[in-house]
Amino acid sequence: MGTAHYDRPAISLIEEKVTPFDVALYIGGREGTADLPLLKKHGISIVVNCAVNLDLNYVPTEEPSRIDAPVPYGHGALRYYKIGLVDGSGSPASMMLAGYYILRGALVQELPDRPSYPHRERGNILVNCRGGRSRSTALVSLFLQKSMPNTYPTMEAALAHVRERRKLRRDEWHETPKQVLVDAIKQASDWIDMIGHDDVPRYDGKGTE
Prior knowledge:
Order of helices and strands: EEHHEEHEHHH
Number of helices: 6
Distance between the termini: 40 Å
């Protein structure tokens, strides 16, 4: 396999300190998100995958996967969440809303102190899609605008910041993200204003293993 060529970084630091969570927020494409040493170098312990057409297997295995055998399962190398958006039309706007709450929930979630939950620490977070250009850019812009409105008072301000930090060329801004995804984050923003947040974990210690 040849070396991948990038016209942008494998991962990009978008926000050094997301308030009130006190973590750094990154965006990456498939190559950067698959590079565990790179993620660990940047203190990334949470990955949120936006792409329905990209899967990542963080479960350690010594044997190559076979098509006629069960796939590996177990504890991965980090905390991994997946939304599954289409890059363009096809996903309902409610999936972008769900993505926002999954991303926020990943930062406030408190895991039980049990061996079956080995990754209880909350480090930095990376949001990815296949190229780190459209779906992840849209979701991160929504997240920043709703989480840090004093810094990003409008969605346009958040989008401009994310595009710049992701080093997207200005001649591709019209499709990074796709317009249908821009429409989706604006719709999701309106819904978030109505729904609000419930950031109090409701785990009561009585769940099953």
